[in-house]
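Can you give me the bound-state structure? Components:
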Amino acid sequence: MKLDEAKQQFILNWGVLGTQWGINRTMAQIHALLLVSPAPLSTDEIMAQLQISRGNTNMNVRELMDWGIVEKVLKPGDRKEFFVADKDIWKVAMRIIKERKRREVEPILNALSQLKDIDAEKGDKDVKQFIDTISQIQKFADQASKGVDGLVKMDEHWFTGTLLKIFK
Amino acid sequence: MKLDEAKQQFILNWGVLGTQWGINRTMAQIHALLLVSPAPLSTDEIMAQLQISRGNTNMNVRELMDWGIVEKVLKPGDRKEFFVADKDIWKVAMRIIKERKRREVEPILNALSQLKDIDAEKGDKDVKQFIDTISQIQKFADQASKGVDGLVKMDEHWFTGTLLKIFK
DNA sequence: ATAATCTTTCAGAAAATTTTGAAAGTTCAG
DNA sequence: CTGAACTTTCAAAATTTTCTGAAAGATTAT
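Here's the bound-state model for the whole set.
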C-alpha cells in the first residue's frame, strides 16, 4: 500500500469514528489530515486534500484550535497561516476528554442537581426512586470524573505498568 | 418543583447529552423515561409521554434492548409488551462503554492495523512518522481498552475507596 | 492611501438523519 | 379458521446538521 493511500484511509476512518461520537465529520478529517502531515498545512492545502470549501475549512480548523489540539503556525515572510496538530496522542486524548467533560457533561450535571428539590406531595416512593436514580448518575459522574482526573496525572508507563497489575 | 416536571426536565437533558455523544435523541429520551418510571411502560405509554410515533418508539426501544440496557416484560393476561430499564447506573454505564467499544471503536482499530503495511518507497521519514502516529493510536486504544476492562471488574467501593487514593 | 492577499462570516443550498404513519406481519382467543 | 390486538417495517416527509461560496473584514506591502 502506498503512503498516500494509507493516509487517505486513515482520514476516512477517523471521520467515521468522529461522526459516531458526535463530532463533525470534517473536523475529524481535518484533524486526521494534520495528524499525518509532517509539516504544517495551509488552508488551501487542507481544502485541496479534503475537497472542501474555504468556509468549512476555516470553521473547523478554528474549532480544532478551540479544543486545543491544533495550533496556528506562522512562517516568516509568508502571509498565509499554517496549521499543525499535536502529535502526542495521549495528550490529545486527555485534552478531548477534559473538553467534552467541561462542555457537554458538566452543564447537564448542573441541571440534574436542580432536579432533586421536589415537592414531597406525591407518593413518597416515586419521589424517592427518582431522587435515587439522579443521585446514582451524579455519583457515577463524580467517580468517572475523578477517575479521568487521575488518568491525566498518570503517565503511560504508570498506567500500563501498575494499574493493570493491581486489577489483575 | 413537581415530580413530573422534574422527570420531564431529566428526559430533556438526557436527550441533549445523548445527541452530543452521537446517540439518537429519542433513544436517549426513551431510556431516560424508563429510568425514572418505577413500573414497566407499554409502547402506548411511551408514545404518549414523549409525543412520538409508534414506529419511532418501536425502533428505538428495540435498539435499547440490543444495547442490553432495557428489557421486555410480559404481564400475564396482557397482550401488550412492557419495557423496563436497568436502574443500576454503574452497570448501565459499563454496558454502554463495552458496546460502543465493540461496535464503533474496534472496527476502526482493525482498519488501522491494515494501514501499517506501507511500501517503503517514499522518503523513510514520512512513512516512519505515519506509522508512529498509527501505532500511538493503537497503543492508546489498547491501554484505554484494558483500563475499561479493569473498571468493569471493580466495584464501586474499590473504585472510590482505593484507586483514587493510589493516585492521590 | 490603495491594492493585493488572506481570513472570516453567514444566508441559503445540500446532505444526512430522524420521524411518521399506514400497510404488512404476527399472535392468540374464541 | 377468523378477526381482534398488537408489533414491525419502511418509503416518504420532516427536521437537523453540515457545507458552500460570495461578500465583508483584516492585514500588510508598495
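A couple of observations. Chain A has a mean pLDDT of 90. Residues 124-153 of chain A form the longest helix (30 residues).
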